[in-house]
Amino acid sequence: MADNVSVGPTTSLTVATDEVGSVQYQKVKLVNAAADSEEEIGTSAKPLPIISMSQLVPKLYDNIFLTYIGDNLTTVLYKVAGDTVATLTLTYSGVVLETITRS
Length: 103
Prior knowledge:
By secondary structure, the protein is mostly beta strands. 4% of the residues lie in helices and 49% in strands. The strands form 2 sheets. A 4-stranded antiparallel beta sheet has the order 4-5-6-7, with no helix packed on it.
């Protein structure tokens, strides 16, 4: 079977896929999230950013408090003896996690 498939009511649109074990998996090209951007990311010239857990989670804490809106985790408070030592704020676009900010 071919690696690309036609989709849509008239099959006039072709989507890049890769066939693995008779199942088609869509190929996705990562680009800058700015509107109409064609700037590729996730390449050797422009790698994806990587954040280590040590950049988000404090070394010392004795309690974690979580806040949710619906099913989305929105705030993580790290505390030592009742004092907040770090806060993570999570933002979403619909159900997609967009940012995590430590303060």
